[in-house]
Amino acid sequence: MNDEKKALAAQFFHPKSIAVIGVSADENAFGTRYLMGLLNFGYKGKLYPVNPRGGSLFGMTAYPGVGDIPDSVDLAVISVPGRAVPGILESCLMKGIKAAIVLSAGFSETGEEGKKLEGEINRIIVKGIRVIGPNCFGIYCPLGGLTVLPGKDFPKETGPVGLVAQSGQFTEMIVLASRGLGVRFSEAISYGNACELNETDFIEVLADDPETKVIACYIEGVKD
Question: Most buried in the list 1, 70, 156, 194, measured by CB within 10 Å?
Answer without folding.
Answer: 194
